[in-house]
Amino acid sequence: MTVWARYGSKAPAKVVAWNHVNGSALTVAPDVNTLADLGGKTVAVPFWYSVHNVVLQDLLRAQGLAPVLKQSGQPGPKEVNLVVMAPSDMPPALASKKIAGYIVAEPFNAAAEQLNIGKILRFTGDVWRNHACCVIFMHEQDLTQRAAWSQKVVDAIVNAQLWTRAHPQEAARLLSKEGPNRYTPHPAQLLARVLAPQAADQGRYLGDRAIRHANWGVKRIDFQPYPYPSYTEELVRRLKTTQVEGASQFLASLDPKRVAGDLVDDRFVKKSIEALGGLSAFGQEGGYARKETIVV
User: Fold this and answer.
1) In this structure, are residues 62 and 36 in contact, taking their beta carbons and an 8 Å threshold?
2) Separation CA 162–CA 36 (nearest Å)
């Protein structure tokens, strides 16, 4: 979304940090057992320029399925029709068989499991290892004219991430509708399913092959604030071959390396991270660089 916002919509804003990594999945109807079963059906995505849409289309193409964007008519047997849908509308649409699946951030995947209306076919973090999902996007004017305030904002978010990593059960309660501030409309039990999953769930996902790369050691959701340039570069490369609706001509002119330097301002988050002891506090090794791992 930030690529579209800055270069498609010309918003004067920059990514200053990541919020959570992984934390998304492809959820499907109970009678869908493989990606091939999605042929001739409709799957919902949250936004055309989201990493969810990118990962989904990579998965479909790897299975010989063509992502299509049809306003009317049925997709062919080797096509999968994609539609944009608000995350909160996805579980009801799946339950009513309006769609055969959706790919989105939690807790809407866990909700389908808990309501027994769907199942997780693949975790996106098991396709693109530790990919960013939600990020912190701030107006350039604040970054230049209110630098001290901007630093405090990033500090607060990074501190919250570190605390959440250490207190997942308590975080689930605080964020839930039973929490004192009712930050979300979701029950604590549902959020705990995402933030503090049971070992039995891991075994089930391995058996169902929703997780195929257990050796990656990724969590269902994790919190890591540094915006790795390699990720931004790879995301831009893949967006260029991703089907989207609307005016997408701007993508053709984007240079991935230049975008990684222009879209992201990591000055603030580096200070926040170092104040907490460095990236190792968030389970990261190798400094401020990494190599992207993507296996469809």
Assistant:
1) no
2) 39
**Cα dihedral 58, 59, 65, 71 sign:** negative
pLDDT in tens, 59-118: 999 999 999 999 889 999 999 999 999 999 999 999 999 999 999 999 999 999 999 999
CA distances from residue 120 to 228, 244, 245 in whole angstroms, order as listed: 28, 24, 26
The overall longest dimension of the chain from CA atoms, in Å, is: 56
Residue 9 near residue 251, CB atoms below 8 Å = no
Section 117-144 average pLDDT: 99
- Return d(Cα 178, Cα 174) in angstroms, integer: 8
CA dist 179 → 30, 87, 173 (Å): 32, 22, 6
Contact assessment for residue 105 and residue 87, using Cβ atoms and an 8 Å cutoff: yes
Name residues whose C-beta falls within 8 Å of residue 203's C-beta, 6 or more positions apart in sequence: none
Average pLDDT, whole number, for the chain?
98
Rg (CA), the chain: 19
Tokens standing for residue 3:
């690529």
Domains and CATH numbers, the chain: 1-134+185-242+263-282 (3.40.190.10)
* Residue 231: CA count within 13 A, CB half-sphere: 22
